[in-house]
Each structure stands twice: as C-alpha cells, then as structure tokens.
Amino acid sequence: MKIELKTTNHAVSHEDDFDSYCYELLLLGWTLRGKEPWHEQQLGDWIKIKGPNVIFDFEFDLPKGTQHWLLCLHQRVAKDNKASENMADRAMQIREAGTLLKADLTLLKERGEKAGSNEVVKNEKKEEKERVKARRERG
User: Are 38 and 88 in contact (CB under 8 A)?
Assistant: First the structure.
C-alpha cells in the first residue's frame, strides 16, 4: 500500500519553543478469523514549522490474508527534533478505512454510485431538539 503525504499547512506551535513536527502513519489490519489484528507504523522526518512544504512517500506491505485496514495519522511537535511528551501537543486522526474483500468492495462501489447519482436531496427544516433544563445548586 503506497501513501503520498503532502504538507500544505504546517503545524501551529502554541508555544514558542517548538520548531518542528513529524507525522507517523499507523496502519491497523485484520486478517482471517481467529488471527490477531496487526499494526505497522512508519515515522516521517522532522519538518521545520517555518520551512517549505514537503512530500512523503510511505509504503506498507500488507500481510497475506489481510481483509480490512484502518489508516491513522499521528502528528507530534518538537524542539530540536526532540518530541514533546505532553499529550496536548499531539494529534491523531483516522484518515481512511478499507477492505480487500470482493463482496465488500462491490457493496462500497454500489453505495458510491448511489452517492454520486443526480438524486435531488431536499433541504428539510430540522426540528429543534428538546434541551435538558438546568437547576440551581442548593446550599
């Protein structure tokens, strides 16, 4: 599996100390029933916050029998290429999920064709949901 990651905006440093950041791709996968899920991770080079945009070419070898996978993107900020250990300085995002099963691929293709059709979707007014009322604290 090949993934091209392009930086279009750099990480924002909420503290003046941070001068760089990095991306880590985490790929989770599931194979045949009864087998343990697997994971693989790859780290990109440090990127200077005030530097040019860059492109990374990540490549993962899927284990034999892989049926489903989930790709996550992890970002960490750093000072002098030393990552912050503060959890507030990290971000994780699920970027994509997929399958290699023929039946699931067919289903996804059918759903994609329906989603891309020229069906008119009416913009109906949404009902206001009932809110839970607050009460005053006694004492």
Answer: no
C-alpha span between 19 and 16 (Å, rounded): 8
23-to-18, 59, 91 alpha-carbon distances in Å: 15, 14, 10
Distance CA 93, CA 72 (A): 6
User: pTM for the full model?
Assistant: 0.71
Give the bridge partners for 124, in sequence order.
Answer: none
d(CA 81, CA 92): 19
Listed in order, strand segments (DSSP E) in 15-119 are: 20-30, 38-43, 47-48, 55-59, 68-79, 82-83, 90-99
In this predicted structure, what is the pLDDT of residue 71? 94
Give the other-Cβ count within 10 Å of 46's Cβ. Answer: 19
